[in-house]
Specification:
34% of the residues lie in helices and 28% in strands. It is α+β, with helices and mostly antiparallel strands and 148 residues long. It has a five-stranded antiparallel beta sheet, with helices on one face. α1 runs antiparallel to α2 and α2 (36-57) runs antiparallel to α4. The longest helix is centred in the first third of the chain and has 22 residues, at 36-57. It is globular, with a radius of gyration of 15 Å.
Length: 148
């Protein structure tokens, strides 16, 4: 596969749209013929990013929009999840494993850690009151190459 392919998806900040987001990204990435493990890693990372945007960024306000942009270049996919919500006041603290700003929701505080471990590259930028942008990159080892 050569060249670049892109998609953009915006949806209401409703928890039921998290599954839609992960399936949409998985369908888009399927053209790279990922392994099941790669696909599961991508879906999990997207789920974490979208859930963070909905719960933390927008506090589950369905009038707000979460946006996913995905770009395939060669054998890699870049996924950006953006919200225009509350933002993160202390990004360094938020990236610590087990930290959660919503302990009453029994959140694990592992979202950023999971995204970072499941992707080849992970970046997060946030402005208090200005939203959060998560950028993740994963190189796909095509199954076709595994069988040759």
């Amino acid at each position: 596969m050569t060249g670049t392919n892109e998609m953009t998806l915006s949806f209401s900040a409703k928890s039921e749209n998290e599954a839609f987001a992960r399936i949409a990204v998985a369908a888009f990435v399927s053209q790279l013929d990922p392994t099941l493990d790669e696909l599961n890693d991508l879906k999990t990372a997207v789920s974490e990013a979208v859930t963070n945007a909905i719960i933390h960024g927008y506090e589950s306000d369905p009038s707000c929009q979460v946006t996913i942009e995905a770009t395939i270049e060669g054998d890699s996919v870049s996924i950006t999840v953006t919200d225009n919500g509350r933002g993160i006041e202390d990004l360094e603290l938020a990236r610590q494993p087990l930290y959660t700003s919503k302990p009453e929701l029994e959140r694990s505080g592992m979202g950023f850690t999971i995204m970072e471990n499941f992707m080849d590259r992970f970046e997060v930028a946030s402005t208090a009151g200005g939203g959060t942008r998560v950028v993740m990159l994963k190189r796909i080892e095509s199954k076709k190459a595994l069988y040759n």
